[in-house]
Design a protein that fits this description.
binds pyridoxal-5'-phosphate; about 475 residues; disordered C terminus; single chain; seven-stranded mixed β-sheet; alpha/beta
Amino acid sequence: MKREDYYRWAERAARWGAEYLSTVENRPVRAQTAPGEIAAMLPWAPPELPEDMEAIFADFERIVPDGMTHWQHPRFFAYFPASAAPASMVAENLTAVMAAQCMLWQTSPAATEIETRMVDWMRQALGLPEGFQGVIQDTATAANLCAVLTMRERALNWRGIDAGMTGEKRLRIYASPETHSSIDKSIRIAGIGQRNLVKVLTDGSGALDPGALRTAIADDRAAGFLPAGVVLCIGGTSVGASDRLRPAIEVAREFDLYVHVDAAWAGSAMICPELRGLWEGVENADSIVFNPHKWLGAQFDCSIQFLADPEPQVRTLGIRPEYLETLGQSEITNYSEWTIPLGRRFRALKLWFLLRAHGLEDLRQRIRDHIAWSEEAAAAIASMDGFRLMTNCRLSLFTFQYAPDGEDADGATERLLRAVNDDGRIYLTHTIHEGRFVIRFQVGQFDCRREDVQMAVDVLRELAAGINPCARNER
Ligand SMILES: *Cc1c(COP(=O)(O)O)cnc(C)c1O
């Protein structure tokens, strides 16, 4: 395909996309394909000669959409959302066309300067104090790793990046058991080791217990470990649990530990001032991550890490060989020095489009609606025969079990979940909470409507009757 043909094919792709978005709700939400089915439709070897774009596009239409799980389906209630407002999709198209590497200021000044401004717009939108700066990363996983590496190096006074960790005291990092698995992964690959991630006791709500944190740190110090940092969680992935930041950060400060807050999902809701009690005390954190690509509507990938002071992280990750020097410009911001990869996409553009096309008031209304509809669904499900709420709504996430009389609740709940996802009208996923198999239900897809949530409740009622042997006998 030649450059001159770009318009024709981009137009064709846009037409396909518009049709897809307007009809996606007629598709089953979760892909209904068996493992290997899609791979079997692809040739074993790459083509030696050019193929016609017509044929390529036809194969796309024939093979791909039916093999996808549809994250922009309005009845996607699984995992957490990966919402993509159409305005952010348009921005992503423009980013793709310019195809710039935005690693240094001079490799794309607009990308750097719009990123700086968008991070500050989001800082204001979330109600964080002035002084927080930040950077857009691909994922919260990457931001979590950057924060853990910074904790490590700050505790070692930056000896680790120079001499390595041999001969150093064993580092310790503290977190509640509700933190995401990407924290465990960060600890592993930062060379600290899983055993040195201390999961601190929580209270009944799943929040880390500050007294237990203090004891754990003091005991470790006395035993010759080197405590380095604390990772706190707002809106945990399993059931949405949150730590109480103010008392936990106060304990971390007693020991001069670096504090990172992972609010990957729940952070978006902090654009609503009335919800900010959830992360009361957040202004005392050193580092905060949230994903506009989850609940806010910025197309994946877009994760913002805020930093009270970027210096420790840039000192940990920044490296400037001569071939990356910008002659005569030592004062400019090179965001690649704040993160792990050198190459960077122009991710700020989709935030700019999103925030302007909707305005904060519309984005807040969507989040408020999602929470209200989730509460309605939780109440309706709690009142249905055989259903039991296992965790109440935390923002727009709750969990439940289906336990008809006399049946094993874990088994019945799992059977219901399979029936739901084979049916396809809605999509739900599960977690294990306090040893029980529970179904998670979150509302957050950008274009979800109240009737979509109501339909989900109806589908659950209908399919539960279908899998319940007692109900079958009555018929
Ligand atoms: C989703 C999630 C993550 C991982 O996010 P990615 O951007 O996919 O890496 C980390 N922490 C929490 C609390 C999450 O909800």
